[in-house]
Specification:
Length: about 190
């Protein structure tokens, strides 16, 4: 398990700066779409943290949150690819980093309707910005959706671990996300 954590931390360190707007290096095609969620801190952290947080929900509820995120993100990206405007998407992405960080740090119980609302808004903002970046590259969208599901799955695996050190590490990750998200919201 320690090896997996080190691999994840290495992936985080190799990730580029957090800019969720058009023009940060996405070429085209399935592979480019698949790599995109790994290319910015905002995408990587939120997708991974959602998997961790969802894994800590009751089993009958938790798996639905990543599925909801991927579905809403794909729909929102599809709308962006059709050029339907959405205001404040960049700020909502930064806010999603803050909210997911807060959820990891606090381990608070959240009403089911609020869970669905938070996940849907975060997914819509991420999806819209992804769709803007991809343009009309439907194969890129397919790659991005798969990568998002993979990141949620990795977070899910970590979130299901009962080791107290891993739980403290996820709280530390949440604190880091709070700080980064706040900086991005102020920028």
């Amino acid at each position: 398990m320690k090896k997996n954590i080190l691999l994840f931390l290495g992936a985080l360190a190799a990730s580029t700066s957090a800019v969720a707007h058009p023009g940060h290096g996405l070429e085209s095609g399935f592979a480019a779409g698949f790599m995109h969620p790994f290319s910015g801190w905002d995408h990587l952290l939120v997708m991974f943290a959602l998997g961790i947080w969802a894994a800590r929900r009751p089993a009958a509820q938790g798996w639905q949150l990543p599925v909801l995120f991927v579905t809403v993100m794909a729909l929102s990206a599809s709308l962006a690819m059709a050029w339907l405007p959405v205001a404040l998407a960049e700020t909502l992405v930064a806010a999603s980093v803050v909210v997911m960080g807060l959820l990891l740090v606090s381990n608070v119980t959240v009403n089911r309707a609020v869970q669905i609302g938070v996940v849907s808004i975060a997914a819509a903002a991420h999806g819209y910005l992804h769709g803007m970046e991809i343009g009309n590259q439907w194969s890129g969208l397919a790659g991005m959706v798969l990568a998002t599901a993979v990141l949620h799955g990795l977070g899910w695996v970590l979130g299901r671990q009962t080791n107290p050190q891993l739980q403290k590490a996820t709280q530390l990750l949440g604190g880091l996300m709070l700080g980064l998200g706040a900086v991005w919201m102020l920028a």
